[in-house]
Amino acid sequence: MHDLIEDMGRYVVKMQKDLGEYSRIWDVEDFEEVMLNNTESKAIESIWLQHDIFDTSTRNIVKKLYFSKEVMKNMTRLKLLYINKFDTHEHLPRSIAQLGALRCLDLSHCKRLTQLPEFPVQLDTIEADWTNYWICNSLFRNLSLLQHDISASDSLSLRVIRGWRWHGMPRFPYQGIDGVSVYLPENWYIHDSFSGFAVCYHGILTDITAHLIPLNDDGVSCITRKLVLSNHSKYSLERNGIHFFLIPFAGLWDISKANGKTPNDYRHIMLSSSEKIKYIFRLLYKMN
């Protein structure tokens, strides 16, 4: 954004602040005032905070951000929450889940962060350090808690979360390409522990089909499920960024088609779609 336009925007917001109805916060002191004094917050649509580690002035040095549960509950219009370079937080308050209008959560460079809060209903874009195992694990833990619906057409509707890929791809052990099966390790399925397949891809997808393929071709058919990937984001059809979704095992497994076989008799998984994409995935267990 051009500096003059940015200055004009800040001036407009300052006028809103003077009226007690400002819609955007980028100054840490303003944020603290809202949180500590329970300042009117219903009009706030964007919070953009960046702790500049190179700024030696005492004005912008903050040890820890304070989040008021009551104030955040009143932020019914907040769509963007950007918290950058605040290294004092290992986790964020659960009250973030109450931000019903939140669409984008940016936690770039929050190095000490070990988990993500539960997702608000409309949240579809998250930026964080995806090379951090615990952050990535927390993302898929949240996805595993979401309701998945199997329609009459035998398809599974899955929630997709988008990232901007500023900090690299996650480190997943399995790599696949559209239409080519990937070999699963022996005894990969553990009852009451295995949650599903955590998938990450770069590109555009709206639907995809998952195939569990038996190790031996002894007349047992593959177990297939059409996956409908749902995403509210206006960015969901852009090629930039990475996307995450979880294939829950309970939604994929079909005992009526297994003919007495166990999940561990199925040693290949394949994803196929109309788009030729590459993807990475890992097996998600409840205890890891």
Describe this protein with a few key phrases:
288 residues; alpha/beta; Jelly Rolls; 2 domains; six-stranded mixed β-sheet; five-stranded parallel β-sheet; 6 helices; elongated
Q: In brief, what are we looking at here?
A:
The protein has helices at about 5-20, 30-35, 70-75, 135-145, 250, 255-260; strands at about 25, 45-50, 80-85, 105, 125, 150, 155-160, 160-165, 175, 180-185, 195-200, 205-215, 225-230, 240-250, 265-270, 280-285.
Protein architecture, described:
With 288 residues, this protein is α/β, with parallel strands linked by helices. It has two domains: 3-123, no CATH class; 149-285, Jelly Rolls (Sandwich), CATH 2.60.120. The chain has six helices and 16 strands. The chain has helices at residues 3-18, 28-37, 69-73, 133-145, 249-252, 255-258; strands at 24-25, 46-50, 80-84, 104-106, 125-127, 149-150, 155-159, 161-163, 174-177, 182-183, 194-201, 207-214, 223-230, 242-248, 266-272, 278-285. The strands form three sheets. It has a six-stranded mixed β-sheet, with no helix packed on it. A five-stranded parallel β-sheet has the order 1-2-3-4-5. It has a five-stranded antiparallel β-sheet with strand order 8-14-11-16-9. Strand 2 (46-50), helix 3 and strand 3 form a beta-alpha-beta unit. It is elongated, with a radius of gyration of 22 Å. The chain starts with a helix and ends with a strand.
